[in-house]
Design a protein that fits this description.
mainly alpha; binds zinc ion
Length: 173
């Protein structure tokens, strides 16, 4: 009995929903937090998920034209995404996470990065991460639906602006 309880507890605590809770306290707009929650549960409508729903679509990542478009690829492993993330880390002084390995899920990468960030800055960092994923997703949609494309540096810049705008709007005087 004890063992089973233990197992249930372990399994539920290792699952996405409870482990992703910092998303809800992150310094980012509600729509972006909701998007991040969906993304961390791998439910955003990337090519691989559209196929599961039997919606015909192009399977290849719109950012690199090289790999299968999955949530993890799009928001972490894609070359385009890595370049944009490198700009953003540099601009926001996040070089402390430069040596964090990017293997594994998006969720585990995020958790590893958080451990390097001072506790007082974590909600801000979570906001940066969320706005980054949000802007990558917007670029993917820009390419998919509008036939327009930006460079990694431009996407990183838009992300930086989102982060700064959010901070300016919520700053208490
Ligand atoms: Zn890609």
């Amino acid at each position: 009995m004890g063992n089973i309880q233990q197992k249930v507890l372990t399994e539920s605590s290792s699952k996405g929903p409870s482990a992703s809770m910092p998303v809800w306290r992150a310094k980012a707009e509600a729509k972006c937090r909701f998007f991040a929650w969906t993304l961390l549960h791998k439910k955003i409508l990337t090519a691989n998920n559209l196929i599961k729903r039997h919606w015909p679509n192009d399977l290849i990542c719109k950012l690199c034209s090289n790999e299968l478009e999955t949530p993890t690829h799009l928001c972490k492993d894609c070359d385009f995404t890595k370049q944009a993330w490198a700009f953003l880390k540099q601009w926001l002084g996040l070089t402390v996470i430069d040596n964090i390995g990017i293997n594994g899920s998006l969720h585990s990468y995020w958790r590893r990065c958080r451990t390097k960030i001072d506790k007082s800055q974590r909600k801000t960092f979570d906001g940066v991460m969320i706005y980054f994923w949000w802007n990558i997703w917007k670029e993917r949609n820009r390419r998919t639906f509008e036939n327009k494309s930006l460079q990694p540096k431009e996407v990183a810049f838009l992300c930086k602006e989102d982060v700064e705008q959010y901070q300016a709007a919520t700053r208490s005087y």
